[in-house]
């Protein structure tokens, strides 16, 4: 199964009402482990890279990692640039081969956001790529992007006009969700997802998924959240797995990096298979 487009993955999930894990990787180990988990679960997966990850690893190195690890992959996978407010980074990633981008202009007035998103969609189409859009910032800071203040919620009519005018392939609304770790179970606006889907027929991206309950995931996915973003959960799993292993290594005075890598990798594989089962994408590979 070759790498496929974001739209092919998300549209199938939207039609059949399951959610596809969209997981932010941070290095080569997490990229390989997420892909391995998807293969094990027989699940499509959306691999996401933040602007911070693109800049820290380097565009060419990251692209080489992706192409080498997905050669001959047995499940549908796609590469997505998450929350990017920088037009140049979007252009660079699209030109290099990223399959989709989220142009995050949520800090701009809606009119300017809409104008520039139209341009990004046109640019992406030139590469056969797709675009996720948003007009409301998701509360919380993720890889240096975002704000801890509650976002202003725009009217349903404004969101619908944005979706229809820009032609975005996926839309990420603010429904009470937040990036990072929730201090309590979030109070979510489920009806807003239903209203957007019924009005536009466009799949919804659910951000701030780390920490939501299984019941909330199931409800939102059944309403049309076909792309479910997971970033914080992977970071926590990755770092805690490293920490636990290294504490054990220190106690035993045994220092074997390959053993550390194997242990941490398995944690990320298990995270991925667990998400696929939870969101209903396990066994949905084609």
Automatic annotation (TrEMBL):
<protein>
    <submittedName>
        <fullName>Class II fructose-bisphosphate aldolase</fullName>
    </submittedName>
</protein>
<feature type="binding site">
    <location>
        <position position="134"/>
    </location>
    <ligand>
        <name>Zn(2+) 2</name>
    </ligand>
</feature>
<feature type="binding site">
    <location>
        <position position="207"/>
    </location>
    <ligand>
        <name>Zn(2+) 1</name>
    </ligand>
</feature>
<dbReference type="InterPro" id="IPR013785">
    <property type="entry name" value="Aldolase_TIM"/>
</dbReference>
<dbReference type="GO" id="GO:0016832">
    <property type="term" value="F:aldehyde-lyase activity"/>
</dbReference>
<feature type="binding site">
    <location>
        <position position="180"/>
    </location>
    <ligand>
        <name>dihydroxyacetone phosphate</name>
    </ligand>
</feature>
<feature type="binding site">
    <location>
        <position position="104"/>
    </location>
    <ligand>
        <name>Zn(2+) 2</name>
    </ligand>
</feature>
<keyword id="KW-0479">Metal-binding</keyword>
<dbReference type="Pfam" id="PF01116">
    <property type="entry name" value="F_bP_aldolase"/>
</dbReference>
<dbReference type="InterPro" id="IPR050246">
    <property type="entry name" value="Class_II_FBP_aldolase"/>
</dbReference>
<dbReference type="GO" id="GO:0008270">
    <property type="term" value="F:zinc ion binding"/>
</dbReference>
<dbReference type="GO" id="GO:0005975">
    <property type="term" value="P:carbohydrate metabolic process"/>
</dbReference>
<dbReference type="InterPro" id="IPR000771">
    <property type="entry name" value="FBA_II"/>
</dbReference>
<feature type="binding site">
    <location>
        <begin position="229"/>
        <end position="232"/>
    </location>
    <ligand>
        <name>dihydroxyacetone phosphate</name>
    </ligand>
</feature>
<keyword id="KW-0862">Zinc</keyword>
<feature type="binding site">
    <location>
        <begin position="208"/>
        <end position="210"/>
    </location>
    <ligand>
        <name>dihydroxyacetone phosphate</name>
    </ligand>
</feature>
<feature type="binding site">
    <location>
        <position position="179"/>
    </location>
    <ligand>
        <name>Zn(2+) 1</name>
    </ligand>
</feature>
<feature type="active site" description="Proton donor">
    <location>
        <position position="82"/>
    </location>
</feature>
<feature type="binding site">
    <location>
        <position position="83"/>
    </location>
    <ligand>
        <name>Zn(2+) 1</name>
    </ligand>
</feature>
């Amino acid at each position: 199964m070759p790498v496929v487009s974001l739209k092919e993955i998300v549209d199938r999930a939207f039609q059949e009402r399951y959610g596809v894990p969209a997981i932010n990787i941070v290095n080569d180990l997490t990229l390989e482990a997420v892909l391995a988990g998807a293969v094990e679960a027989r699940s499509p997966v959306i691999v996401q890279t933040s602007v911070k990850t693109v800049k820290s690893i380097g565009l060419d190195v990251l692209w080489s990692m992706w192409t080498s690890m997905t050669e001959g992959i047995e499940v549908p996978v796609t590469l997505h640039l998450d929350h990017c407010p920088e037009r140049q980074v979007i252009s660079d990633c699209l030109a290099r081969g990223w399959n989709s981008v989220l142009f995050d202009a949520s800090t701009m007035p809606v009119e300017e956001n809409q104008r520039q998103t139209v341009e990004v969609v046109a640019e992406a189409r030139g590469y056969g790529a797709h675009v996720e859009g948003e007009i409301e910032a998701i509360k919380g800071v993720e890889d240096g992007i975002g704000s801890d203040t509650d976002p202003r919620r725009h009217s349903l009519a404004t969101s619908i006009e944005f979706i229809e005018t820009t032609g975005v392939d996926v839309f990420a609304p603010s429904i009470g969700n937040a990036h990072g770790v929730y201090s309590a179970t979030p109070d979510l606006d489920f009806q807003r997802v239903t209203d957007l889907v019924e009005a536009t027929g466009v799949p919804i991206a659910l951000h701030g998924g780390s920490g939501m309950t299984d019941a909330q995931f199931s409800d939102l996915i059944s309403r049309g959240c076909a792309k479910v973003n997971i970033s914080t959960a992977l970071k926590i799993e990755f770092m805690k797995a490293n920490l636990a292993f290294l504490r054990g290594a220190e106690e035993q005075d045994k220092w074997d990096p390959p053993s550390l890598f194997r242990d941490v990798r398995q944690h990320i594989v298990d995270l991925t298979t667990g998400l696929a089962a939870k969101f209903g994408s396990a066994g949905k590979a084609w």
